[in-house]
Amino acid sequence: MHWLIKGVVVTISLVVIWFASQWGIANVYYFTVYNKLTAWEKQSSELTLEQLDELGNAVDGMLSYHPDHPHYLVTAAKWQEWYAFYYYGEDELANPYLEQALAYYQQSAALRPSWPETWINMISIKVRLDAFDSELQEYMQQATTMGPYNEHVNLGIAKIFLYNWRKFNAEMAALGLTHVERTLQSNNVFELYNYAKLTGRQGLLCQLIDVKQFELSAELPCAG
């Protein structure tokens, strides 16, 4: 009996060590990808296709150990988005990468539906693909449900609504207005106003504030 118990303990210990090693290797790949993506966010002017392709080896390694890890899938999606950035202005080349990024985000959302940032990332890609459809509406509803007062959700949808409001159906417009209102009542009020001014939507925003009588967290030039 003593040897049996000892054998079980040894077996369990080996299994634990094996799983720990798998996580450790996967994390090495993950941080390789994460550090590259972070560096590109700070300096993207010299980004090359070769760098993107080379990073794919680390992405493949990361997912080979844990293909169902929600955050790894989000990281892989961001890698694909950088391809789209590289091909900015060339939709025929960029869009397949956006579609692959969306697929990664969809897998992540299925595994971790309560994470609001994933939904807003999916919304952003749908808009970049000019896909104002029922799927986009579903993503907007999910983002609103999972992150009703999440600043990334509020500000992200508010900006998208202001710029693309003519493409929204009634249900999507109602969601968009909800997030405009919440952003105006948050610390991001000036960021939304400056975005509207930069994109030629200042008049629309000011009109909404006047007509809807939105409360503001700070006074804006058009709301006096």
From TrEMBL:
Biological source species: Alteromonas oceani
Listed name of the protein: VpsP family polysaccharide biosynthesis protein
Gene3D superfamilies named in the record: Tetratricopeptide repeat domain
NCBIfam families in the record: exopoly_VpsP (NF038257)
Source taxonomy: Bacteria, Pseudomonadati, Pseudomonadota, Gammaproteobacteria, Alteromonadales
